Amino acid sequence: MKANIVVKFIAVFSTAAFLATGCATDQQGQGGEFGYKKTTIGAVSGGAIGAGIGALAGGKSHRGRNAAIGGLSGAVVGGAVGLYMDKQAAKLKQQMPEAEVVRDGDKVYVALPSGILFDLGKDALKPAARDSLAKAATTLRTSETNIIIEGHTDSTGNNSINQPLSERRARNVMNFLASNGVPASRMTAVGYGSSRPAVPNDTEANRALNRRVQLEISPNERLKAQEGKGTGTGNN
């Protein structure tokens, strides 16, 4: 169903998009399932063309190898905000190749499986995870966005253990990003325990997907105001 929508969208707008600015290209020069598509046609009048082919191609049905993102709307947003968030998604995917990165509406979602971040049942960040998050911080610390850092667990075990564990993991990710220059005033950490699974907890593979830390990245008020004024947003 979603694939048909994407095909129809591209069929209707491909000619106009070509005339406006040329075709969309892969921002990192990578094709295949995990290349994040950059649209070169954001900020076109009316917003229909600039809604972000990348957002559609990387929408609800787009799944990475190691992570799952639940609750996507499938919405697309064009204009300056859409283009800005496309760039944010592309940079983060390049810096965190092990993560699933999806642009949905005016937000970017990044999901990292907890097995990459933490040892089982622990909340201390692994060295490799620290390296990956430090790279992502170079983008996040200068971006005009707000970040909600969510900790999630699977349904195994008692929630009296899962809930505080998810909170500590989210808080530790937030504190690490803050130590690498991301302003704490732009971040919020929250733990959901097992209450918000991305997929059913019916197999071990699915439970592994649900054990994750997820970032919800949204444009701040300044960026939204620039959109209203038709002001460019730079290269961040």
Concise account of the structure shown:
This protein is an alpha+beta fold and 236 residues long. 41% of the residues lie in helices and 16% in strands.
List the helices and strands and how they pair.
Blueprint: H1 2-21, E1 25-26, E2 37-38, H2 53-57, H3 79-95, E3 100-104, E4 107-113, H4 114-117, H5 127-140, E5 145-152, H6 159-179, E6 187-191, H7 204-210, E7 212-219, H8 221-229
Parallel strand pairs: 5-6
Antiparallel strand pairs: 1-2, 3-4, 4-7, 5-7
Strand-pairing-aware structural class: alpha+beta
Strand element count: 7
Largest sheet: 5 strands, mixed
CATH C-level category? Alpha Beta
Number of helices: 8
Looking at CATH, the homologous superfamily is: OmpA-like domain
- CATH topology type: 60s Ribosomal Protein L30, Chain: A
Summed up, the domain count is 1
Strand content: 15-25%
Neighbour order of strands in the largest sheet: 3-4-7-5-6
Please tell me the overall pLDDT: 75
Low-confidence stretches are 2-66
User: Ends: how far apart?
Assistant: 34 Å
CATH-defined architecture: 2-Layer Sandwich
Order of helices and strands: HEEHHEEHHEHEHEH
- Fraction of residues in H or I helices: 40-55%
Shape: globular
From the alpha carbons, calculate the radius of gyration and give it in angstroms.
18 Å
Describe this structure in words.
With 236 residues, the chain is α+β, with helices and mostly antiparallel strands. 41% of the residues lie in helices and 16% in strands. Helix 6 (159-179) links the parallel strand 5 (145-152) and strand 6. The radius of gyration is 18 Å and the shape is globular.
